[in-house]
Design goal:
Length: about 425
């Protein structure tokens, strides 16, 4: 632990937001207050039709990303390529997000928010339609790359958009509603899309996605308020946003937590083999999914008052899962209990991290969100890579202890980010 702390301390200075050494931090932008310039009406009630439109946007984004995994054999036969090549459709999607989320978000800071959001959403209708009709694998790959581009732009917008529609004390709850499309897509959308692909074909499934996206464009036009972009003299550079107090703490927590999750989740099938549950992988994942949905609800209820405590609790619970599975991971009952606790720890963490990022960055929230999206995708890719290396070298028993090694410094960073990043409720005013 001392080595880990020493490494972290060389990059992060403990104190008021971990000021980067040898650099001058820009003062934290004030938390974004509700902006009524776009015509949004603010009250003590959440604008559910508008927030659910954002949730549907998140649902379509995640489903577009994950659907090839469920349709992989059928796409492989129809496109006359190997299943491993079809798997690269997910890789190209992630690459599109990684390469463009930050520069696109920075370049469009001055755009009005609603037209920009519509561009991102409409882009999914175009790329999913191309995927549905393409008979050339290279064209399909290109469509998937641009799907990732639109995804990076959309993810950078959603949290800040939700926050601007409500008073400050409801921002966390609003973001929780806007993000609920993510777990719904993973737990319900992907299985439903896989079933639909078997029933009507994978091309028709992507076509249906395009129809849903066109419907969402109409919903956004009818229900979402518009907000102005930032004036040129108010925009912060990427370096300035990165050095805002607390931003790096949130980004580090995102990287380490999501990396820990993906190391185990990507290879959960081989991990549960010693417990004798290999034939029950569907039930094991169902336990995780249901628990994650419960977590989403609980965090949505409590996030506006207990963001810091919930993040600390989620990290501690996930750390406990690592220890539990490391010691008794070959026992079926422990695996089921661990999956349930894991779902509770991870289900709402995207909402917690995005809310922390938005509140910490203030008026620079969209740029900070693009950084978070990029780090999140790096963690996804890194989890698959690191887990694969561990699987081929030391085996599945190393996975839980890898979680522990990643989550101990995560707990330390979250705990120390008391002034900025993950402050207690009373510090957020």
């Amino acid at each position: 632990m001392s080595d880990v702390s020493g490494t972290l301390a060389s990059w992060l200075e403990p104190g008021d937001g971990f000021t980067l050494r040898a650099m001058t931090s820009t003062p934290t932008a004030p938390a974004r207050s509700p902006d009524v310039s776009g015509g949004a009406a603010h009250s003590e009630r959440l604008p559910l039709p508008s927030l659910l439109a954002l949730a549907m946007a998140a649902f379509i984004t995640v489903l577009t990303e994950a659907l090839p995994a469920g349709l992989l054999p059928r796409m492989s036969v129809d496109l006359a390529v190997s299943e491993s090549m079809v798997g690269q459709l997910v890789t190209l999607y992630a690459l599109g997000t990684l390469l463009t989320a930050i520069p696109l978000t920075a370049a469009t800071q001055g755009w009005r928010r609603k037209p920009l959001l519509l561009v991102a959403i409409a882009g999914f209708a175009v790329v999913n339609t191309l995927t549905a009709v393409s008979t050339h694998f290279v064209l399909t790959l290109a469509a998937r790359f641009f799907a990732g581009v639109f995804a990076g732009l959309l993810w950078a917008l959603v949290a800040g958009y939700a926050a601007r529609m409500v008073p400050a004390h409801l921002q966390g709850r609003a973001m929780a509603v806007a993000m609920v499309g993510t777990p719904l897509a993973l737990s319900l959308g992907v299985p439903a899309g896989t079933f639909l692909g078997a029933a009507v074909g994978w091309r028709s499934t992507f076509g249906i996605m395009s129809v849903l996206t066109v419907f969402l464009v109409g919903w956004v036009l009818a229900k979402l308020p518009d907000f102005p972009g930032q004036a040129a003299d108010q925009r912060l550079s990427l370096a300035s946003v990165f050095t805002l107090p607390g931003v790096r703490s949130v980004l580090f927590a995102t990287l380490a937590f999501v990396l820990a999750h993906n190391v185990l989740y990507t290879y959960v099938a081989p991990f549960i083999v010693p417990s004798g549950l290999a034939e029950r992988i569907d039930v094991v994942l169902l336990v995780f999914g249901v628990s994650a949905l419960v977590s989403i609800w609980l965090i949505g209820v409590m996030i506006d008052r207990w963001l810091r405590e919930l993040m600390l609790g989620s990290t501690a619970l996930f750390l406990g899962v690592g220890v539990l599975l490391g010691l008794w991971g070959s026992t079926p009952a422990v695996v089921y209990a661990g999956m349930a606790a894991w779902g509770l720890a991870f289900g709402g963490v995207a909402t917690l991290l995005q809310t922390a990022s938005a509140k910490t960055a203030g008026e620079a929230a969209d740029v900070a969100q693009s950084m978070l999206v990029t780090v999140w995708n790096i963690a996804i890719a890194g989890g698959g890579l690191l887990g694969g290396v561990l699987l081929e070298t030391v085996g599945v028993r190393a996975f839980p202890w890898t979680l522990v090694l990643l989550l101990v410094p995560t707990s330390w960073v979250v705990w120390r980010a008391r002034r900025h990043g993950f402050p207690p409720a009373m510090s957020r005013g």
